[in-house]
Amino acid sequence: QVQMVESGGGLVQAGGSLRLSCAASRYTYNTMGWFRQAPGKEREGVAVIDQSGSTTYADSVKGRFTISQDNAKNTLYLQMNSLKPEYTAMYYCAADKRWGTVSAAMEAIQTYGILTSFTFWGQGTQVTVSS
User: Fold this and answer.
1) Would you place residue 72 in the very low, low, confident or very high pLDDT band (cuts 50, 70, 90)?
2) Other CB atoms within 10 A of residue 4 CB
3) How far apart are CA 30 and CA 27, in angstroms?
């Protein structure tokens, strides 16, 4: 059974930092990503990475967040700096074996939507940024 387990969320003041981790079991995935969902809003993409290390970020987090992966440990990270209250949300990691590149994954998201484009999801970790 595939497991994606996030950790590292919490309460932080605006301007602070957090580092999220996601341990993925069993497979080596072609693409992995971080997504977030605030109350009353749709799930949105934050950052995606492929096995070559290519990345893409949502405009709202560029320059503040860094996605990375440790392939040996099958672990995904999200370093979040200069946090804003509007970043408050449940953060989810996700992975898929179908899309070989970030471009292909982003095209799939445009075509099929986030939840359909990534097969494996974690349970989420709450990030709360106070003002």
Assistant:
1) confident
2) 22
3) 9
- Residue pLDDT, tens place only, 33-52: 999 999 999 999 999 999 99
Distance CA 4, CA 1 (A): 10
Cα angle 8, 118, 120 (rounded to 5 degrees) comes to 60
Q: Enter the tokens of residue 86.
A: 């509007």
Cα–Cα nearest to 22, from 128, 104, 121, 131: 121
Query: SS3 string of the chain?
Result: CCCEEEECCEEEECCCCEEEEEEECCCCCCEEEEEEECCCCCCEEEEEEECCCCEEECHHHCCCEEEEEECCCCEEEEEECCCCHHHCEEEEEEEECCCCCHHHHHHHHHHHCHHHHCCEECCCEEEEEEC
Residue 9 and residue 18 in contact, taking contact as beta carbons nearer than 8 Å: yes
**Does the pLDDT of residue 1 top 80, yes or no?**
no
Structure tokens at 36: 């977030």
Beta-bridge partners for 91? 36, 125
